[in-house]
Amino acid sequence: MSKELADLVFPNIDKTPEYYEELYPKRNLKEGAVVTRFAPSPTGFIHIGSLFTANFASRFARQTGGVYYLRIEDTDGKREVENGIPLIINGLKVFDVKFDEGPTDETHESGNYGPYIQSKRKEIYQAYAKSLVEKGLAYPCFCSEDELNEIREKQEKLKIRPGYYGQFARCRTMSEAQMIERIKNGEKFIIRLKSPGNPNKKVRYTDLIRGTIEFPENDQDIVIIKSDGLPTYHFAHAIDDHLMRTTHVIRGEEWLSSVPLHLQLFEMLGFEIPTYVHMPTIMKDDNGSKRKISKRKDPEAAASYYKENGIPKEAVLDYLLNILNSNYESWRKENPKASSYDFIISPEKISVSGAMFDLVKLADVSKNTIANFTAEEVYSQGLEWAEEFDKDLADLMKAHKDFTIGILNIERTGTKIRKDISKWSDLRENLEYLYDEVFFEKPHNDEWQNITDKEEIKSILTEYLNMYDENDDKDTWFNKIKDLSEKHGYAREVKEYKKNPENFKGHVGDVSTVIRVALTGRKNTPDLYEILKLMGKERIAKRFARI
Ligand code: GLU
C-alpha cells in the first residue's frame, strides 16, 4: 500500500538507496583517517568563525591522513549570491585552506563522491525520502501556512512546546487513501519525517570537544523535503554525510541542539552515526561584556577584513590556532620559524566556552609573525598588499626595490629585532619618509628636541657631512658623532652628562637627534647608522641642504 503512495509522491524516482550505497562505497583509508568537510551556503561571505572551523578541520584531516572536502549547501535559494562558489574557494585559499575534493568552480568538481553541490543531488535525496515513505517512516503533509499558524497559536495559548508533533501533527494520522486522493487532486504537499521519538526518553551522544551529552529524544515531524523538491538542512546533512562517507561532522555549536534529530535520522535511514564535533562560537569583548562576533556590527567578522587590512595570513592562522589550542602559543615561542602545520592539534583541547577573539592580541601576534619574516618576505608580501590597496606605495617600493629591502632588513636579525610592523598598512608610515619623492614633497618636520638654534644645527650638519664616510664601521661612525658632540659642548656619553649636567649643553643623543631629524624628519627611526649607509653621502647631503 505505501508503495503506491511513494510512487505517487516521487513518480520520477526509480533509483533506490541500495543503488547509491553501491555507487559511493566506503572509503579505503587507513585506520583513524578523518574524513570531514566544509559545508557553507554560497552567500559570498566567509565568517571568521567559519575560517576558525575550516582551519581546524582541514588540519585535522591532514594530520590523520584523511580527506577534507567542500560541499556547497545551496538548497535555500534566497541566500545565494552570484559567484558564491569561487568566492568561497578563493576566500579560503588566501588562508591556505585547500580541499581534496569538491567543486573547483561553478561547473567543475573533483572527487568520487559528488555531485558536491546540493542542488545537483535532488534525485538522491528524493530516493531516500521515497524509501522512507514506502516504509511508513515519512509522509506527505498538506497543511497550509494558515493551518500551521493556527497550530502555533494554539500551542502559545496552552504554553506548550511549539512544533509539528504528537496530536498537533495533523497529517500524520491521515489515512493513506486520503493522502492518495489529495495528491491526485493536485494539492501541494511537503514530506515530513514520522518521528518515532519520545521526549520523555533521553538520547546520549559523545561530542569530541564536549564529551557525553544527554538530550530528550526528538518527536518533531520535521520537514525533510520542501515544496520545491529540495531537502531541508537536516535531511541533506544525513544523506550527504553518509554517502560522502564523512567520519567527523565538524560544525558550529549552533547545531548542537539539532543532534537528537540528526541521530534519529541516521538511525531511521540505517546509517552509521558519525563523530560530531561542535566548534565554539567566536566571541568578543564589547565594553566588558562578552558577545558573539557579529557580521552586522564587526568588520572583523569577515575573513576578507584581514587581507584588506594587510594582516598576513600567517598571523591570522597563528592567532586562530592560539584560541583553538591553548598550548599553541608556547609551542610557537619555542618554534618561532616552524610551519604551523608541524603543530599537532588536539580536539580535546578546544575550549567549550566560546573562543575569545581580540584584534589587539591579533596585532601582537602579527608583529611577532612579521618579525620572523625575512626582509624579502616583508617586501614581497607588503608589495602584494600595496598593489591592491595602496598603489602609490607599491610604485615607490618597486622603483626602489633594493633600497626598500635594505631598509626592511635593518634590525631584522640579532638580539634586538624590530617589531614596528603589525600589518602591511603600517608600511607606508615605516617607509615613505625614506623615499625622496615623498620626503621633499612634504613640509619638513623639524622637532629638533633639545637643540633648536638654527645656526648651531646648520654647523653640526655641515661638519658632520664633512666627517661622514660610508666605509666607517659602526664604532668609528659613532665615535665621530661623539667627537662632534664634544666639540660643540655636548657630553660624549649620556652617563657622563647625567653625572654633571651643569658642565654640558646636553649629550651625544641631542646631536644624533639633529642628524636623524634633518635626515628623516622623525625622532624615531630604525638604526640611524644603517639608514645613512643605505642612503649614501649624496642623498644625505641633499636632505641636509633642506635645513
Ligand atoms: N550549511 C550549514 C551552515 O552553513 C553547514 C553546517 C554543517 O557544517 O553541517 O551552517
Brief sketch in words of this structure:
The chain is of the alpha/beta class.
Major sheet summary line: 3 strands, antiparallel
State the helicity in percent bands. Answer: 40-55%
- What general form does the structure show? elongated
Strand order of the largest sheet: 5-6-9
Question: Averaging pLDDT over every residue, what do you get?
Answer: 94
Cα(first) to Cα(last) distance is 100 Å
**Bound ligand species:** glutamic acid
Calculate Rg over CA atoms.
33 Å
Query: What multimeric state do the chains show?
Result: single chain
Top keywords for this entry?
547 residues; alpha/beta; three-stranded mixed beta sheet; 24 helices; binds glutamic acid
Description:
The protein is an alpha/beta fold and 547 residues long. Helix content is 44%, strand content 11%. It contains 24 helices and 16 strands. The strands form 7 sheets. It has a 3-stranded antiparallel sheet. Helix 14 crosses helix 16 (401-409). The longest helix is centred in the first third of the chain and has 16 residues, at 48-63. Residues 39-41, 73, 237, 251 line the site of glutamic acid.
